[in-house]
Amino acid sequence: MPGYSSLLPPLTIAILDNRPMFTSGLKQALEREAHSVLEASDWAELEEKRSDTPLDLLLFSAHACSDQQISLPLDSFRLHNKSCKVVMYGYRNPISSLLPFFHGRIQGYLPETFTPTDLEACLRQLQSNQLYINTDLVYDLLLTRLADPTKKTVILSRMENTVADYLLKGMSISKIAELMNRKAPTISTVKKNIFRKTNVDNILDLAKILKPQ
Question: 203-210 and 158-168 are packed helices; what angle lies between their axes, rounded to 10 degrees?
């Protein structure tokens, strides 16, 4: 995660994610800012590595978890780590289901494709003892509230809408990445999320969903 820069005091941070390539980049970015970072692929490994070390912040991925798979271990973690701030990222269930987690379970949320700017803004907000909600989440929630409840509406984030527009124009992943100043794997992930949300597996069907005649 190049470009991350912060003037925050050093923190002890745990990253809970079973994708080593992702966590490696995130860890390096945080360590460059003098934060102490440990990685774990699951809750059991986190407890084993953490031992008695008090944590200031837990960053954990919910990209492949049901709400129950999130809430049960998180509640257990909170019982013994009351002062630790918790930030979740990559939640893939209906966005309205995310809000209850802010009632005592998490203090912040980042999208799966969060940027260094998002991360820094999140850490600053938490340092001020305020909840952090990424702007993409606010956008999604507004769309959800405004959507006609009698219709099945596809809710895409701003980034997903932008990528979808480029895909419908026939652009390749590499071209979209270049235009948006993002990495190709990031755009590939966004494309997969778009297909999942719209329940399609090709561009032609996507066009029928997003641009009906």
Answer: 120
Average pLDDT for consecutive 10-residue bins of the chain (213 residues)?
Answer: 62 93 88 90 91 90 86 90 92 79 90 85 91 79 58 73 90 92 92 89 86 60
Beta carbons within 8 Å of 24's beta carbon, 6+ residues apart: 39
Q: Would 161 be classed as within a structural domain?
A: yes
Q: Is residue 146 part of a domain?
A: no
What's the sign of the alpha-carbon dihedral 120, 125, 129, 132? negative
Tell me the residue range of the domain where 179 lies: 154-210
User: Are residues 33 and 69 located together in one domain of the fold?
Assistant: yes
Q: DSSP per residue over 123-190, as a string?
A: HHHHHTT--EE-HHHHHHHHHHHHS-TTS------HHHHHHHHHHHTT--HHHHHHHHT--HHHHHHH
* 145 is a domain residue: no
Name residue 89's beta-bridge partners: 61, 110
Residue 58 counted as domain residue: yes
